[in-house]
Each structure stands twice: as structure tokens, then as C-alpha cells.
Amino acid sequence: PRKNLTTSNHLRHVESMAHLPSGAGRITRLNALILGDALASEEDDLVFPSEVLSTQAHVSSPQKYLEMYQRSVHDPSGFWSDIASEFYWREKWGQQVYHENFDVRKGKIKIEWFKGGMTNICYNCLDRNIESGKGDKTAIYWEGNEPGLDSSMTYNQLLARVCQLANYLKDVGVHKGDAVVIYLPMLMELPIAMLACARIGAIHSVVFAGFSAESLAQRIIDCRPKVVITCNAVRRGSKIIYLKEIVDSALLESAQKGIVTDVCLTYENESAMKKEMTKWTKGRDIWWQDVILKYPVTCDVEWVDAEDPLFLLYTSGSTGKPKGVLHTTGGYMVYTATTFKYAFDYKPTDIYWCTADCGWITGHSYVTYGPLLNGATVVVFEGAPNYPDVGRCWDIVDKYKVSIFYTAPTLVRSLMREGDEHVSRYSRKSLRVLGSVGEPINPSAWRWFFNVIGDARCPISDTWWQTETGGFMITPLPGAWPQKPGSATFPFFGVQPVIVDEKGVEIEGECSGYLCVKSSWPGAFRTLHGDHERYETTYFSAFPGYYFSGDGCSRDKDGYYWLTGRVDDVINVSGHRIGTAEVESALVSHPQCAEAAVVGVEHEVKGQGIYAFVTIVEGVPYSDDLRKSLVMVVRNQRLTRYIGHQVFQRREVGK
Ligand code: WTA
């Protein structure tokens, strides 16, 4: 049974806000503040949605939110089954909509939603939308690294491409429950590959195509895929990255540890590298273009239980070994679709662009699944946001008439320091709603995003969530209530956040402490691959009875939540999670490094930077070259090629 609900502070506040008038006029108050009204504190700074946006929104007022929120936490079964019924289920779930044990003291942690229901997320993304008349709607606009290189695909075409790949995978022996590793850049083939796996019940594990060969090998060894899908190379900005070579070394390394992958399906990314130039292992490597087109464009769906695994995504923890976060099908499907719809106030006419890579959870939930489940048109961008110049994002926004733009504070801050003129030369009038994710957005970056990018017209959904949560947990709903720059506002439907002190005691009202959640939500991860014990100790043991997020948080007098960053051994650099232990173990593998201790330091643009204290082996003199080689060992061994210089390439290479 659910814990008794105390009417938490935020609800009381939303209740008291219910009488507030809305209207665009109120936005000027923010401008007054920016112009120097020093009397109000940051927390008091309210930004109201425009009347038009509000009245047309799915959730148009604090009362409406309150009604829906109350139902979602008092009657989760009713609330979520009503929503789940909008999807296609081959068989309906059993009597019990969800089952949870959230308390380690009561036994094994267990979360289940819609158990017994048979469905398929690929079917719900594609076939279901096509059947309801969206077949000719554009599913994906693809924008290449080089301006002018682009293409697009309708829902019908996407389904055909997914089915061809799904048929191929079946043909080479991939069955329900088998793992497939995907190491691809942001080509259309990346979401295609994810959906093809889902269609046949295979578990995809996308590895960000910027991770090193060692990191890739580590993941391959952990999940033992039947097939690895990659491409030969990719252009990012002015650089070419030879992905196939990285895969070759990862496959060699994993084979040495006894994990042999039979098939390496390689897409020829012609704009970056010709086939003929690519190193090839006969018998194992297969060109995508040589085989896939021969397969039928229809493919039967594998109906899976709502609790069958959908994907594994590795994320950094406080020890050296990455954690394989496991998400299952039904709850994740319902949750990503619903959060997408409400947090971005999605309408069928919207054009949506999320700048995240599918190698991260944001790309899983809010490039691929959430939007496609809603039948949305999604922009997929291969390149770097500062190439060929720092106006590229707005060029893309104008080109595709993007109405919802979702990005990370680090990008906002990096563009902010380039100056407004790179923004104002573009129209951006299609923009309606903005979004932020990955790290706390500081109020000054929030204001610049709001005023300069969104012309003081577009609410910002500052979505707090994690790889583990599957979807948004604390997020504004654009039309529902006034925002405060830098606050993620209130919890999403069904989410019961609590702030606890160091003893694990819940604190009420205005306070600061550790952010926990006290009951399950459909999108929650179910375990860590192969290590349920680590799942329980990492997330459920610090504060028994709660899921512990690893984040610090405060709640202001009005009930708004303000995320303050990680409180564990995880650093957040440009929105990317990095375990200090991962960096330390890379450093000590350097022959001249005896000991290392790593901490996060504040960084103006990246949010946090990595600071390493290193003890050098006795007798070795310190030199700048040694420092550089220590940096390189970290970069090559553990981290991504892009981290730290992804969006700052021009200025920060070598730092
Ligand atoms: C941080 C990314 C403040 C937080 C979706 C969390 C945020 C970690 C926000 C998860 C936000 C994410 N405000 N902090 N809006 N969004 N974070 O797993 O520290 O890559 O624990 O998921 O990012 O990172 P992950």
C-alpha cells in the first residue's frame, strides 16, 4: 500500500496560486528585474506564461494541475491506466496495475507496472500512428554536419526502414531478450536501429559514439551483444572521427576477454569516409547498405510483456564500473510519452528539436521514444552547435520552423558568451516552448535563454530527471503556472519528491537537503544489469524507504524545487555524468602517476570542471608535458572525445 500522503508544501502553494491572473503583461515584471529592480530576490521572480499559451495548453492553470496531480498520487492505478489505455496493447495488463516494494527493510526492491500486459513500443511509435492517419507525416528531419546536407523521412518510410533492419537482425540470429550494442552518431540509422531492436524484443544498448574503445569494450563485455551496429566514420564540426576503428579495438579487447561478437553491421557514412578506406574483418563485418535493402519492408511485431526489458544504458557511478541501467517496456512507454506531451505542451503541429545525442538517456526518451509515441516530427542533428559558426542552432530552428527546442544549460552558456548578435540575426519566431536538461540552469543563463533566444515569449521547461528515472520528474508545465528562473518548479504527475536530512528524516516546508522519491512511477528503472544488489545499495539504502537521487535540493517558501547538483562522487561536466573514481582509475593507470584524487570545480560554462590532485611517482619531475599526458590518459581511456570540447572546440582545445 502507498504511504499516507501529507499535503506537501508545493500543493498548498499551488492551491494558493490558483486565483492568480495570468497574462503576458506579467512578463514585463521580469524585464524590470533584469533592468535592475534589485528589491525582489531571485526566488520571488515570477515569469508568467502568455494568456494565449496558457489557455491553449494541456494544463492551463494551477487548479487543473492540482486536480490531475492529486489523482495521480491518490489513485495511481486509475490515473496511469487511463493514460495507458490510449496505447495499443495486444493483451491488457493484469488486475494489479502496479506493484512496488520501495523499502529495503521489507525485502527485495521491486517495481512493476502493467505486468501481464502485452505490447510493443515500436508498434506504438510507428504502426499505431500510421493507422491513425499519420503515415505521410514527417517523422524525422535529418540535418547533417555540413549545412545543406539533409534528408527527411515520413512515418511510413521510417516503418519500412525499421522493418528491414529488424528482419536482418532476426536473420542473423537475434532473438527476443538478446542484446544489441549500437555505437552510432546522430544519423537517422540510430533511432532506426533502436526501434528495430524494440520491434523484435531485442534489448538495445546504445553507447555514445564518443566513448573510447575501452569504455565500449567494457560495455560489450558486460552485456554480451549478438550484434554491434556502427558506421565507418562521422564528421563533427571540422573533425572526422573514425568510429569503426574504435569498434575494431573494442571488439578485439572484448574477444581477448572471451566475449566474441559475431556480427559488426557497419553503415557507410559516405559524407565522412568512403567504404574502400575502411578496415575490414571478413566474416564479421557487414556493410549495412549491402544487406539491409534486400529485406522486406514489413516485419511482424514481437509482443512483449510490459516488464520485459527494452534497453540497457550505462551511466557513471561512484565506483569505476559503469552501471547498466535497465528499463522495461510498458511503464517506460507510458511515462516518456506522457511527460513529453505535458512538459512541452506538445501539439500535433509542433516541430520538435532536442539537441541531445541518442547515446544519452535524453536521446532515448526525448529524441526517439517520447516524441515518436506522440506522432511528432523530430529534428535529428548530426553536427556540432558551433559549426560552421555559433549561429547554427538558430539557422536550423528557422530552416525547419522548430517550435519546441530542448537543450542543455552548458550550450546556452557557451552561446551566451558569444554575444546576442549571433542569435538576433535569425528570426526564431517559430519557437513556442524551450527546454533545459542535464544540470542546474543558473538564473542568468535562464534569463538569456528566455529573453534572447525565446524573445521573452517562450516558457522554459527546466526538466529535472536522470537516466534512472526514465523521464521527467520535476518539471514546469508551460501553461500551468508562473516560472522562476533556475527552478525546475513542481513534480510531474505521479511523482512524490521529498527532501530528507542526513538522517533520512523528511523535512517539510522551506528547506534544503537530499532529494528522494517516496514511491514508484512507471518510468523508473527496474534494476542494474546483473547486479540487483548494487541497485539496492546505491539507490535504496542510503535513506531506507526512499529512492535516493544523489542530488541536493532546496524548496523555497512557495514550494518551488531548486536543484543544487550532485552530492555524491559524481561530477557533472557539461551535463555529462562522470564518476570521480572513473577518472582516478584512468589517472593511476599512467605509469608516472602514483595516486590521484578527483573533485569537481565550478566552471563558468560547463557547470563543473574536473580537478585532479595527483601524486607523481618519486623521482619523476613535474612538467607541462607530463600534465598533458595525464589529461590524455583520462581522455583516451574513460571519457568521451567530446566531453569538455564538444561545444567549445575553438577556444578550449588543449586546456
Ligand atoms: C543532473 C540526464 C538540475 C542531476 C537527464 C541528475 C539536473 C543528473 C537537471 C542526471 C536539471 C539533470 N536541473 N540538475 N534540470 N537535469 N540534472 O543521468 O544532477 O545523465 O542527477 O540524466 O543530471 O544525469 P543523467
Report the count of strand segments: 30
- Percentage of residues in helical conformation: 25-40%
Tally the helices: 22
Q: Judging from the principal axes of the Cα atoms, what is the shape? A: globular
Main beta sheet strand tally, sense and closure? 7 strands, mixed
SS-derived structural category: alpha/beta
Rg from alpha-carbon coordinates: 24 Å
User: What small-molecule ligands were found?
Assistant: 5'-O-[(S)-ethoxy(hydroxy)phosphoryl]adenosine
Distance from N terminus to C terminus (CA atoms, Å) equals: 54 Å
Lateral arrangement of strands in the main beta sheet: 5-4-17-16-18-19-20
Could you name the ranges where pLDDT drops below 50 across 5 or more consecutive residues? 1-10, 18-40, 640-655
What is the mean pLDDT? Answer: 90
* Percent of sequence in beta strands: 15-25%
Provide a descriptive summary of the structure in words:
- The protein is an alpha/beta fold and 655 residues long.
- The strands form nine sheets. The chain has a seven-stranded mixed β-sheet, with helices on both faces. Strands 7-6-8-11-12 form a five-stranded parallel β-sheet, with helices on both faces.
- The protein is globular and about 65 Å long.
- The termini are far apart.
- Residues 1-10, 18-40 and 640-655 have low confidence and may be disordered.
- The structure holds 5'-O-[(S)-ethoxy(hydroxy)phosphoryl]adenosine (WTA).
- 5'-O-[(S)-ethoxy(hydroxy)phosphoryl]adenosine (WTA) binds at residues 315, 360-362, 436-440, 462-467, 488, 549-551, 563, 565-566, 572, 577.
- Pathway: Phytoalexin biosynthesis; 3,4',5-trihydroxystilbene biosynthesis; 3,4',5-trihydroxystilbene from trans-4-coumarate: step 1/2.
- Belongs to the ATP-dependent AMP-binding enzyme family.
- Residues 65-125 form the Acetyl-coenzyme A synthetase N-terminal domain.
- Its EC number is 6.2.1.1.
- Keywords: ATP-binding, Ligase, Nucleotide-binding, Phenylpropanoid metabolism.
